[in-house]
Design brief:
about 250 residues; alpha+beta; 7-stranded antiparallel β-sheet; 5-stranded antiparallel β-sheet; 7 helices; about 35% helix; Stp1/IreP family PP2C-type Ser/Thr phosphatase; PPM-type-like_dom_sf
Length: about 250
């Protein structure tokens, strides 16, 4: 993986169907500059179509970055890709009524040499491990997150709340793209995780921190994260990307 600027980015990815699902509705994309995870919803087939449609838009953004035809501003380029994802989902639903109501989360990090441009919609998550401390860098677009912010429930209660997967924002056919777009400053030694809720809903925050901090090999750490989610019952598909800044 070639660096883009003075810092180098290395990454590994793992995805697994989990213990209770028949198919994997997560989709993932990784390259030397763009990392993305999407978690589809809307039923077995529609969920797969939605997440893969969003990732297709991200893939095309990476190709435009390669040939220099993407917007120079990286946050703007990501925003355009998210809008394109919604257009694709809308077109697919118009062609096939069985796809009505499908949608997907999307969390993407676009590398810029010494920082990321980030785009986020839904409850897939981005984390940063720095100096042994783990921080969630995305905000869940869920009912329970709003309850936490209002002080009505604790983060611990949110982990097992029956409505924890009810989204307040997603990329949906017929909807409007409304991603959180923000820069993320990067330093040498940082480790980043983006994942679907099949990992973050099952594996406790402290366990994520300990695993990311102690398992140094990238391929080993993504395998370990999937193993932890499956050991916790694997109720959903599990997808994670871990990236090191060196």
């Amino acid at each position: 993986m070639e660096p883009s600027g003075s810092l180098k980015l290395r990454y590994a990815v793992a995805t697994d169907v989990g213990q209770r699902r028949d198919a994997n509705e997560d989709s993932v994309y990784t390259s030397s500059r763009l990392l993305a995870v999407a978690d589809g919803m809307g039923g077995h087939v529609a969920g797969e179509v939605a997440s893969s449609g969003a990732i297709a838009a991200i893939t095309e953004l990476d190709q435009r970055l390669e040939d220099g035809s993407a917007a120079e501003d990286r946050l703007e380029a990501l925003g355009e890709a998210v809008a394109e994802a919604v257009r694709r989902l809308t077109e697919l639903a118009e062609e096939d009524p069985a796809m009505q109501g499908m949608g997907t989360t999307l969390t993407a990090l676009l590398w810029e040499g010494d920082r990321f441009a980030a785009a986020h919609v839904g409850d897939s998550r981005g984390y940063r491990l720095r100096d042994g401390e783990l921080e969630q860098i995305t905000r869940d677009h869920t009912v329970v997150q709003e309850l936490v912010e209002q002080g009505r429930i604790t983060p611990e209660v949110a982990m097992t709340h029956p409505s924890r997967s009810v989204l307040t924002r997603a990329l949906q056919a017929g909807g409007t793209a409304d991603p959180d777009l923000f820069p993320v400053e990067a330093r040498a030694g940082d480790r980043y995780l983006i994942c679907s809720d099949g990992l973050s809903d099952v594996v406790a925050f402290d366990t994520l921190r300990e695993t990311l901090a102690t398992v140094t090999d990238l391929d080993a750490v993504v395998r370990k994260l999937v193993e932890l989610a499956n050991d916790g019952g694997g109720p959903d598909n599990i997808t994670c990307v871990v990236a090191d800044v060196a």
